[in-house]
């Protein structure tokens, strides 16, 4: 029953998509809160800016993780979402993910709510540079580090115990502190980005959440805004979400299998 309802919602168009980590697990990127995920305590923005040792620990882990994170390929969900955009069914896509996979799958109208790990920003002069450039500098400063082993974490870093001998690269422009161009825990999403997302909610006929527990307010607030407007809210996710009480349609299943079934149902009715 849920598959047919979701197919009709997508056929009507005007859908705003909100995606989370559950969309990228099929690409080999773990999530924070999905079934079977290992509990993790990510570094906060306050920790990162407060101490050189914290930045050293972060960049050591991120340096090793980058080579694994950036070879991840878009999966079925990313490609199906891009097809929905091409078919004119969507008003936009807001993703909480920082892996860049929606863009690599060909999606054009994309809001990266939490930024992207393929960019680096200087906290002091605000210069932005490609992450690949920094990776090459870190390789020169830390020969052999890329071969270290560690479990991959959701934001592209790996779990390493000893990082005290890692050499952190400064900003080439001002010598300042470099940070991935992503929103850390404890850091706020830029106000213009939030305002744009609320505008998308106002212009949409429905909201579809894919692969997010909606644990953090940065995504949940758009579900609340959609429910306040009285438009349908559909959620597809393995396990419970904070948005469930507001959902008009709830499917507890994997995103890829659900979207595949939904589009097949829609195609069957079209050809019937």
| Distance, first to last CA | 18 Å
| The CATH architecture of the largest domain | 3-Layer(aba) Sandwich
Task: Work out the strand percent.
Answer: 15-25%
Under the CATH scheme, which class of the largest domain?
A: Alpha Beta
Number of helices: 9
Q: Rg to the nearest angstrom? A: 20 Å
> Residue-averaged pLDDT, rounded?
91
Tell me the structural class.
Answer: alpha/beta
**Helicity range:** 25-40%
Sheet bearing the most strands, described?
6 strands, parallel
Task: Describe it.
With 272 residues, this protein is α/β, with parallel strands linked by helices. The protein has 2 domains: 1-29 and 74-114 and 187-272, Rossmann fold (3-Layer(aba) Sandwich), CATH 3.40.50; 39-71 and 117-182, 2-Layer Sandwich (SIR2/SIRT2 'Small Domain'). The protein has 9 helices and 9 strands. It has a 6-stranded parallel β-sheet with strand order 3-2-1-7-8-9, sandwiched between helices. The radius of gyration is 20 Å and the shape is elongated. The chain starts with a helix and ends with a helix.
Summarize the structure.
The protein has 272 residues and is an alpha/beta fold. It has helices at 2-12, 45-50, 52-69, 76-86, 101-104, 131-141, 191-202, 217-229, 255-271; strands at 15-19, 90-95, 110-112, 115-122, 128-130, 178-182, 206-210, 233-236, 249-251.
């Amino acid at each position: 029953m849920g598959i047919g309802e979701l197919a009709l919602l997508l056929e009507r168009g005007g859908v705003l998509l909100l995606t989370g980590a559950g969309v990228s697990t099929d690409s080999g990127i773990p999530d924070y809160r999905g079934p079977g995920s290992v509990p993790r305590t990510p570094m906060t923005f306050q920790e990162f800016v407060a101490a050189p040792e914290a930045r050293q620990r972060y960049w050591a882990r991120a340096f090793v993780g980058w080579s694994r994170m950036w070879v991840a390929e878009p999966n079925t969900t990313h490609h199906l979402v891009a097809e929905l955009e091409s078919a004119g069914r969507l008003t936009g896509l807001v993703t909480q993910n920082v892996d860049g996979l929606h863009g690599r799958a060909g999606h054009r109208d994309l809001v990266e709510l939490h930024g992207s790990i393929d960019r680096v920003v200087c906290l002091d002069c605000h210069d932005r540079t490609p992450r690949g450039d920094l990776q090459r500098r870190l390789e020169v400063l830390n020969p052999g580090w890329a071969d270290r082993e560690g479990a991959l974490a959701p934001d592209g870093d790996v779990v390493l115990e000893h990082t005290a001998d890692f050499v952190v690269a400064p900003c080439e422009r001002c010598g300042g502190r470099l940070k991935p161009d992503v929103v850390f825990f404890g850091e706020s999403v830029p106000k213009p980005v939030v305002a744009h997302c609320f505008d998308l909610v106002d212009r949409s006929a429905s909201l579809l959440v894919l692969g997010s527990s909606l644990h953090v307010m940065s995504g949940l607030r758009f579900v609340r805004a959609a429910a306040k407007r009285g438009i349908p809210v559909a959620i597809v996710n393995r396990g419970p979400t904070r948005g469930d009480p507001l959902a008009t349609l709830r499917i507890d299943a994997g995103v890829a299998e659900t979207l595949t079934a939904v589009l097949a149902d829609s195609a069957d009715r079209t050809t019937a």
